[in-house]
Design goal:
Structural class: alpha+beta
Strand content: 15-25%
Number of strands: 37
Shape: globular
Number of helices: 30
RNA sequence: GCCCUGGUGGUGGAAUUGGUAGACACGCAGGACUUAAAAUCCUGUUCGCUGAAAAAGCGAGUGCGGGUUCAAGUCCCGCCCGGGGCACCA
């Protein structure tokens, strides 16, 4: 009876599908457990062996939890809307709906071969209208909400309107326009358009004009997390700042809660740090400086700056405002007018990328001054792009002795520097210390800087010239894309007012469109459909939602995927609650994770769900790198020289498809057939073998180092593949793929098989009770496998199986009782062979629904242990000792050891350290 | 520059709280079975030194340099290198 994994795996995959082995019910007396994978965007390239790593880990854990008596939700779906899918569709000339469907089918067939325990009845696709209906619905809830800073939660807009009608906005500062102030009677007097504009400034999902990241090549705006180093994350196209009307999510209002929530979840430190840094909270002060300018427009105006170091107020030598600052025009003196205009033009001519690439010091004097609040001196106001319009107040007080950028700027423009930190400032570099005792600092003289921060703020508050202020670096998230393949907004514009469409009209279906060219005036492709945009006397919103819209809440839909009345019933979300274990890559650290955390908080605030953090625990799987193979072509010829001989030639390195290489040995005939270019290649070999070079790099088509899981499954089976992926190393860690290494795991599985069945003799299981030694081997394995599985140390768990099977083989164990138990603990890792042998052994039911065995400690009790004896910390010998011996007994036995006697050289030891169950150390 | 990670044999990695460094595999070398191959099995495998060899022994050894400790891959201080994130954020 051979291990015919192909038949076995197909047989059980079919059986499980037929009897709905992975169907999950929302009603169960068992405790719930929710395991979630970050769902994939179904790319055209299909899966390579790196992708399923996280899926296998979560699958193993789900199956383990199920055997431990939990009702486990473990769903899968597709993030099928979004820019990449649309780009793919455009590049291949296929409508995105069709290419997406096709790509999903490819993914699905690949996933199916690996034997996952997903409940496919719960599959979601973000681009299906029965899904995006609810994405639109949630958008409408956010559109109909505002964030109450006092209670720190989202509330309904009608409550805000009630407040406005009774007291204006005196107690509700406007997040969208802080200069906005009105009374109750003002409110009542406003017309519909004015009221709508004001409400828009409060809505959590809002439309506004703002500086956005515009990517010309992609024809759309991008969110901050989609821009890396001034170019688009996808495609690497240049990105420029542009003022546009856009939809946004007011995620900044949630900054504090997003920060606080991190303390309640189990994410890695680096993940929490990334989010914390992205939010970028800082403490400081806002200070008003009186302006002095010959320009009449500056009359009575103040310049408001934000600083985290108000203690350095006496070290201010100049002010800097952003080129986009609203005061630029008003304060510029006539003498400086042309220089300022020229500078602003220069700044506007520079793309984001240029600014990033060459950070040269630039700026212009405005001609205006500020009065120092505590001293009779005037401070020049400069304009420079190193101050960002979007952060703080868009203006700073520059303290060159303490801040590196201010220092460089002062040096560049020969601005005199005031030293307030004495010897801490050397005149060559700025020193941002907080330890110095202040000098040249008026009432702060003699105070330590750290203490002066609070003192100075208090003073400024007394004088009414400044106040304590907390700032966040995070910006509101751009929420519209000028693209086709996304959720249409359920919004219609009439007389420049955005009206929400009624819930009854959802979903607003994405119309079919064959030509995806941009619409006029930078609008999306939907603008090309006048018959669609014209709607009930108004115009539909033609932007679509970004890729992260659907993924911000998909974990909720899995709980209740077929619900036609609600996005997810409260009953279902109360039952399943938070995702207990979320597995995915780090690339979503600040994008997807922040957005879905925010959506969860908003839905919680509005009473739709009962928890405000979506993911209780997050595990980031590492990436699997490709192991590329290289051949060396002698320059200018069609001759290829083997890696060991290449140093004697001038060569060009060429990537060769890894499937043409066994280890490092090139299949030369295969190589010739691979590409027409190489058909007449000749080889300089090492004793008839052409050795390739190798390099570890990203697994990618262009390096020809992609390994397809389908090929591995055909050759070794899904069980081997699953176990090998787990065996490769810790899940969280990046690691290279080495197809050769899989042999070891495959051998293990075959060896396991032989405990149950023999090629000639057939089934070799016996009813005889297993020996104590076998039970000991088994329980040792069980204990370690369970511990390791529970702490996601899957690689060591696989080792334990190997050790256990090696031991049971040596012990010649064929006990049906023992080996059936072994199948249960193996099933999470290798479900197919476990199920097959479970039925071969004549067990009832499915191994998937067995009870995880518990450890019988009595077999693990040790009466003696082999202790290492160290002399001065260095192990010299070992000794077998009874575990219950006293210190005195041990000392006596140790002193009698020949090796110890030899090292003592007749002296007596200073001390003998005996740590029970660990070791013995003799100190000489 | 700042923050976070990681650095262990030829390779992937193990060592959960300071207690036998290198588990388990890959690869390699040798052997058994076979006409042969595949498959399978066995033995060895951190490096260096002393042994003809085996047995055995000695020395060094977890990126580098210090330290704490009876004992350090693990803890502390100072560096170096790789990976990831952020980057005029006042």
């Amino acid at each position: 009876m051979e291990y015919g994994f192909r038949d076995i795996e197909r047989k059980w995959q079919d059986a499980w599908k037929q009897n709905k082995a992975y169907k999950v019910d929302n009603n169960s007396p068992k405790p719930k457990y929710y395991v979630l994978d970050m769902f994939p965007y179904p790319s055209g390239a299909g899966l390579h062996v790196g992708h399923p790593l996280g899926y296998i880990a979560s699958d193993v854990f789900s199956r383990y939890k199920r055997l431990k008596g939990f009702n486990v939700l473990h769903p899968m779906g597709y993030d099928s809307f979004g820019l990449p899918a649309e780009q793919y569709a455009i590049e291949h000339g296929i409508p995105p709906a069709i290419s997406t469907e096709y790509n999903i089918n490819t993914f699905r067939s690949q996933l199916d071969k690996i034997g996952f325990c997903y409940d496919w009845d719960r599959e979601v696709r973000t681009s299906n209208d029965d899904y995006y209906k609810w994405t639109q619905w949630i958008f409408l809830q956010l559109f109909d909400s505002w964030f109450d800073r006092k209670s720190q939660k989202a509330r309904r807009l009608h409550e805000l309107i009630d407040i406005f009608s009774s007291e204006g906005n005196a107690n509700i500062p406007c997040p969208g326009d802080k200069h906005l102030h009105f009374t109750a009677s003002d409110w009542k007097a406003f017309n519909e358009k004015q009221q709508a504009d004001i409400l828009m400034h409060y809505r959590i999902a809002f439309c506004g004009i703002g500086e956005v990241n515009w990517c010309e090549a992609l024809g759309t705006v991008l969110a901050n997390d989609e821009v890396i180093n001034g170019v688009s994350e996808r495609g690497g196209h240049p990105v420029v700042k542009k003022k546009l009307r856009q939809w946004y999510l007011r995620i900044t209002e949630y900054a504090e809660r997003l920060l606080a929530g991190l303390d309640t979840v189990d994410f890695s430190d680096s993940m929490k740090d990334m989010q914390t840094n992205w939010i970028g909270k800082s403490f400081g002060a806002e200070i008003d400086f009186d302006l002095v300018s010959e320009n009449m427009l500056a009359e009575g105006k103040k310049l408001k700056v934000y600083t985290t170091r108000p203690d350095t107020i006496f070290g201010v030598d100049f002010m800097v405002i952003a080129p986009e600052h609203e005061l630029v025009k008003q304060i510029t003196s006539s003498g400086q007018a042309s220089a300022v205009t020229e500078y602003i033009d220069y700044v506007n001519s520079r793309s984001e990328r240029e600014r990033m690439a060459e950070k040269k010091i630039s700026g212009v004097f405005s001609g205006a001054y500020c009065k120092h609040p505590f001293e009779e001196r005037q401070i020049p106001v400069w304009i420079s792009e190193y101050v960002l319009a979007g952060y703080g107040t868009g203006a700073i007080m520059a303290v060159p002795c303490g801040d590196e950028r201010d220092f460089k700027f002062a040096q560049h423009f020969n601005i005199p520097i005031t030293n307030i930190i004495g010897s801490h400032f050397n005149g060559v570099d700025a020193n941002p210390t907080k330890e110095a005792i202040l000098e040249n600092s008026g009432f702060l003289n003699g105070t330590k800087m750290l203490d002066a921060i609070a003192i100075s703020i208090t003073k400024m508050e007394e004088l009414g010239i400044g106040k304590r202020q907390t700032n966040y670096r995070m910006r509101d998230a751009a929420f519209s894309r000028q693209r086709y393949w996304g959720e249409p907004f359920p919004i219609v514009w009439k007389n420049d007012i955005a009206y929400a469409l009624p819930v009854s009209s959802l979903p607003v279906a994405l119309p079919q469109l064959s030509d995806l060219k941009p619409g006029p005036d930078g609008q999306g492709p939907l603008a090309n459909l006048p018959e669609w945009t014209a709607f009930e006397g108004g115009t539909r919103e033609v932007n679509t939602m970004p890729g992260y819209a659907g993924s911000s809440w998909y974990f909720l839909r899995y709980m209740d995927p077929q619900n036609k009345q609600e996005f997810c019933s409260r009953e279902a979300s109360d039952y399943w609650g938070q995702v207990d274990l979320y597995i995915g890559g780090t690339e979503h650290a600040v994008g997807h994770l922040l957005y879905s955390r925010m959506w969860t908080k908003a839905l919680f605030d509005l009473g739709y769900i009962g928890f405000d953090e979506p993911f209780k625990r997050l595990v980031n799987q590492g990436k699997i790198g490709g192991d590329s193979r290289l051949v060396y072509r002698v320059r200018g010829t069609k001759q290829f020289v083997s890696a060991g001989l290449k140093d004697g030639y001038e060569t060009d390195e060429i990537h060769v498809d890894v499937t043409l290489v066994d280890g490092f040995d090139l299949d030369m005939d295969g190589f010739k057939k691979w590409k027409p270019d190489f058909a007449d290649a000749s080889f300089i070999t090492e004793e008839g073998i052409y050795k390739c070079g190798s390099r570890l790099e990203k697994m990618s088509k262009r390096y020809f180092n992609v390994v397809n899981p389908d090929d591995i499954v055909v050759k070794y089976g899904a069980d081997t593949f699953r176990m090998y992926e787990m065996f490769l190393g810790p899940v969280e860690q990046d690691k290279p793929w080495d197809t050769k290494g899989i042999e070891g795991v495959h051998r293990f599985i075959k060896k396991l098989w032989r405990l149950y069945a023999d090629a000639e003799k057939g089934i070799v299981l016996t009813d005889a009770t297993a020996t104590d030694a076998s039970w000991k081997a088994f329980y040792k394995m069980l204990k370690k496998v369970e511990e390791d599985t529970a702490r996601f140390s899957f690689n060591t768990a696989v080792s334990c199986f190997m050790i256990g099977v090696n031991e049971l083989t040596d012990l010649n164990c064929h006990s049906k009782d023992l080996l059936s138990k072994l199948l249960i603990i193996l099933a999470p890792y290798a479900p197919h062979i476990s199920e097959e042998l479970w039925s071969v052994a004549g067990n009832q039911g499915s191994v998937l629904d067995s009870n995880y065995p518990s450890v019988e400690e009595k077999y693990l009790v040790e009466t003696s242990k082999e202790y290492p004896i160290a002399i001065n910390g260095k192990t010299r010998t070992t000794i077998e000792l009874d575990v219950n011996l006293s210190q005195q007994d041990v000392e006596k036995l140790v002193m009698a050891e020949p090796v110890v006697i030899k090292w003592l050289e007749g002296k007596s030891p200073k001390k003998i350290i005996y740590v029970k169950n660990k070791m013995i150390n003799v100190v000489i």
